[in-house]
Design a protein that fits this description.
heterodimer; A: 353 residues; Rossmann fold; 6-stranded mixed beta sheet; 4-stranded antiparallel beta sheet; 16 helices; 17% strand; B: 266 residues; mainly alpha; 0% strand
Chain lengths: 353, 266
């Protein structure tokens, strides 16, 4: 539905979008991720025909954005970064104007305006002047405008900015219902939104495509051996951090981890993640020591996978004795595993569970 | 064209829900009324001073008529208010869209830039036409109280009509120039001031060459918007004057279209 090839946009000597290529299938919901200034908005503007690309091609619904812009625009609904509303107009007048702009037949326009007003939940402010509405309502009016005419492709630039948590959930539900018949590209900074609504994630950084994959694919690629549920956004934060980390402080840790985790998983993948076992019996004192031992145990036993992690057996609350011995063994273990840090910090695991 | 009409309708909606159109009407009506009563008073004073019993006075009275003395003078004075009003009608047309980031909506809708330009232009022109219509009420009011020497209408409607046409063409030119300036900036104030300077410059350009002779003076007269209005006020429609105004209209709209397109490539 959307085909982008070698797209490049240059503002004088500033390269904003750099050789971007990706394809979006019909009916997919794509989350567009990237730090501020990564080129998300510019890419979306090119896709909607607002600005031309310096080089490369973009096709939407089979039409080249540059060669046949009107055909593309007829099939695209677009919510820009700033909701494009006229502060002097009422919501109803604004939506009717947009219906006229999109050449909806006059007879259908009224019904269509009512439909999108219901979808975007602005039906109770239809008679009010947009200038007097809150940011959240303006955003939803802008969203209603994008939905007018039921376009095949929806391009939403940060659709949930300025909304309260309940409204965010409503918009999320709305976007989910659009999946299937509509192709949606939405950019956002809110990772939970991506995790909950999008099938695929496209991460760009400094104008370049860093990764484009399904959520499962991203997890398999960047957090191998990690079991996550989609309610959990910590993993996405971690992946995102790995992909777009610009600071030198974050870079080595991201490079360190991949070598560390294979030795962990190849050596001995524990059938039960250590923290899951540790959190079950809730022993007050032995818990930290047990967690310290857990990563070390595979290397100590030289790759033999213990069917049950040792601390489960020793973590009965009425045995305080094993705890100190475990703690004395714990500091020694990292040196045996040649300085490999524990695959993930314990605090992350606690939140992940 | 349906999109252009939608844009024109929306612009008219904005003109009449905000004070802009009403202020334009009020300013024009107020000053037109001052000029009109002044002209009528001058006419009355002059007519009462000339004695109809002298041969010279009789000759003068034969040539004295309301159309030439009152209406044409009124229209000539209104011309400058058209020039002043038009920039305030055109200033926000595109500049405000750019500032409010609503231009993105228009340019990503299935609409050609030329349709946007035409829609906005037509709306501004409609408001200007109403303004000129208000001015036309003054000569019309003369027919209520005066009668022609031979029992006909007190004023020559043909001359009034050509005068109104001239004013409309002047307004069309001013709006087209204002629209172009509005497309160049994000600031409404800058758009208004720059187009006002350009239009007033064209209006009074002959003043700069009063002392000079020959080609400079001819040039000034041929680019002056006030010089080209005069024949209309005297009841003549000349091709060169119509062409003068229409070429400014076409040039202004074409440049606006180009300016919108050019900014997307910046």
């Amino acid at each position: 539905m959307i085909e982008v090839q070698n797209l490049t946009k240059r503002y004088r000597d500033r390269l904003v979008v750099n050789d971007l290529s990706f394809t979006v299938q019909r009916g997919e919901i794509i989350g567009f991720l990237g730090p501020n200034g990564a080129g998300k908005t510019t890419t979306m503007r090119i896709l909607t025909g607002y600005i031309p690309a310096t080089s490369g091609t973009a096709k939407v619904a089979g039409f080249d954005v540059f060669e046949q812009p009107l055909e593309v625009k007829r099939r695209t609904g677009y919510l820009p970064e700033t909701p494009p509303v006229y502060v002097d107009m009422t919501v109803r007048a604004y939506l009717i104007f947009c219906a006229g702009l999109k050449r909806l037949p006059r007879s259908e326009a009224k019904r269509e305006v009512e439909r999108v007003a219901n979808l975007a939940r602005v039906e109770d402010v239809m008679g009010r002047v947009i200038g007097n509405l809150s940011k959240g309502y303006r955003q939803r009016v802008g969203l209603a405008q994008a939905l007018l005419g039921d376009p095949e492709v929806l391009i939403l630039d940060e659709p949930t900015v300025g909304l309260d948590p309940l409204q965010i959930r409503e918009v999320r539900e709305l976007v989910k219902t659009l999946a299937g018949q509509h192709t949606v590209v939405l950019s956002t900074h809110i990772l939970s939104e991506v995790a909950m609504t999008c099938q695929k994630v496209l991460v760009i950084h400094e104008g370049r495509l860093v990764d484009f994959d399904t959520l499962d694919g991203l997890i398999a690629k960047h957090l191998p051996g990690r079991r996550v549920t989609l309610d959990d956004i910590a993993f996405l934060e971690e992946i995102y951090g790995k992909l777009v980390a610009p600071a030198p402080a974050a870079a080595p840790s991201a490079q360190d981890r991949p070598p560390a985790s294979p030795t962990f998983t190849s050596g001995a993948p524990p059938p039960i993640p250590p923290h899951v076992a540790g959190s079950a019996p809730e022993p007050p004192a032995p818990a930290p020591s047990a967690q310290n031992r857990a990563p070390a145990s595979p290397s100590l036993t030289s790759g033999a996978p213990p069917p049950i992690p040792p601390h489960v057996a020793g973590s009965a609350p009425e045995h305080p004795a094993p705890a100190p011995s475990a703690q004395t063994r714990a500091p020694a273990s990292p040196s045996l595993t040649s300085g490999a840090p524990p695959p993930t910090p314990p605090s992350k695991k606690e939140t992940a569970s | 064209m349906r999109s252009a009409l939608a844009i024109a309708k929306k612009e008219l909606n904005v003109y009449f829900t905000t004070p802009i159109a009403y202020v334009a009407f009020m300013v024009t009506a107020f000053f037109a009324a001052q000029f009109f009563t002044g002209s009528v008073e001058a006419y009355r004073a002059f007519a009462s001073r000339v004695s109809p019993y002298e041969a010279q006075g009789q000759q003068m009275l034969e040539h004295l008529n309301l159309t030439d003395v009152v209406v044409s003078r009124l229209f000539a004075s209104v011309g400058v208010f058209i020039v002043i009003t038009a920039p305030f009608l055109s200033m926000r047309l595109i500049a405000e869209e750019k500032r409010a980031r609503t231009f993105e909506l228009l340019l990503t809708a299935p609409v050609r830039p030329l349709e946007i330009v035409l829609g906005k232009y037509v709306a501004a022109l409609a408001v200007l036409a109403v303004t000129i219509g208000i001015v036309a009420l003054f000569p019309a009011s003369l027919t209520l109280v005066a009668r022609g020497a031979s029992g006909g209408s007190a004023i020559e409607w043909q001359t009034v009509a050509t005068g109104l046409l001239g004013l409309f063409l002047l307004g069309a030119m001013s709006t087209a120039i204002g629209l172009f300036v509005s497309a160049l900036t994000e600031s409404v104030i800058v758009a208004a001031l720059v187009s006002l300077i350009v239009l007033l410059g064209l209006w009074v350009v002959t003043v700069f060459t009063v002392a000079s002779e020959g080609p400079m003076r001819d040039l000034a007269q041929s680019v002056s918007s006030s010089e080209h209005l005069m024949p209309f006020l005297q009841g003549r429609i000349e091709l060169k004057d119509v062409l003068y105004y229409l070429s400014f209209v076409v040039l202004g709209l074409w440049l606006t279209d180009r300016a919108i397109e050019a900014q997307r490539w910046a």
